[in-house]
Amino acid sequence: MDFVAGEIIPIYKPYTWTSFQIVNKIRYHLTRMHKVKRFKVGHAGTLDPLATGVLLLCTGKATKRIEELQSHTKEYVAEIMLGATTPSFDLEHPIDATYPYEHITEGKTREVLQQFVGNIAQRPPLFSACKVDGKRAYDLARGGSDMQLAPKQIRIDAIELLEFNLPKIKIRVTCGKGTYIRSLARDIGEALDSGAHLTALERTRVGEYKIENCITPEAFPEWLEKQSEL
Q1: Quick check: helix, strand or coil at residue 212?
Q2: Longest CA–CA separation in the chain, Å
Q3: Backbone angles phi, psi at 32, to 5 degrees
Q4: Nearest to 190 by CA among 126, 141, 123
Q5: Which one of 6, 7, 79, 173 is CB 3.0 to 4.6 Å from 61, fit for a cystine?
Q6: What is the pLDDT confidence band of residue 144, given thresholds at 50, 70 and 90?
């Protein structure tokens, strides 16, 4: 493989790792392999620290393809807790409110999920990397701001209910660029006359790159060594 000319490497991002930490780790091994001080590496689409799954890394001249790769269809498997909300819509922050959920049925859940399929307006979470007047939204949130971000147009191709076991449900989501699954969890809770937050998220596919083809950060050095032997 020619990492200078450019390669796309599907990495499995572990739980609690940031996308930036993954990039740094892979860059470290590539700089050592090529015996240089700097090596160009970027990722095509951030994953939250509490999410796992497919993270595409681009090396060398392939970093020019990042925007193209970010536009590819993505697939996620998400676990959602009904009946409670958090400020970040996931487990990064503690529960701030609870709601009844006993009225929710599997049939009603399936019906509500289909309301979110298609081109819809979605309000990003305040705890996100969206920019507001040049500042990251999460910096404003951590500073105490409770402002609401403007809705953005996104595309959801399909939502499948995988498990229904109150107060938790598990869904598979196929969607386009810019979709926040945390926001989707919040909106599903509201549509079910309750509250909800994300308790687990795994990105299983980006375009043609699937989770079963990913390399773990731990296995990367050995994998890289084999590439140099080919």
Answers
A1: helix
A2: 62
A3: -65, -40
A4: 123
A5: 6
A6: low
- Reported as a single tens digit per residue, the pLDDT across 179-202 is 999 999 999 999 999 999 999 999
- C-alpha pair distances (Å), 6 with each of 3, 62, 65, 73: 5, 4, 10, 22
Closest CA to 200 of 148, 162, 152: 162
Residue with tokens 């449900």: 169
CB 12 within 8 A of CB 37: no
Kindly state the DSSP code that residue 108 receives in the 8-state scheme: H
| DSSP notation for 38-83 | ---EEESS---TTEEEEEEEEEGGGGGGHHHHHTS-EEEEEEEEET
Model confidence pLDDT, tens digit, residues 56-107: 999 999 999 999 999 999 999 999 999 999 988 999 989 999 999 999 999 9
Q: Look at residue 135 in the predicted model and tell me its pLDDT.
A: 58
Annotated catalytic residues are 48
pTM here is: 0.90
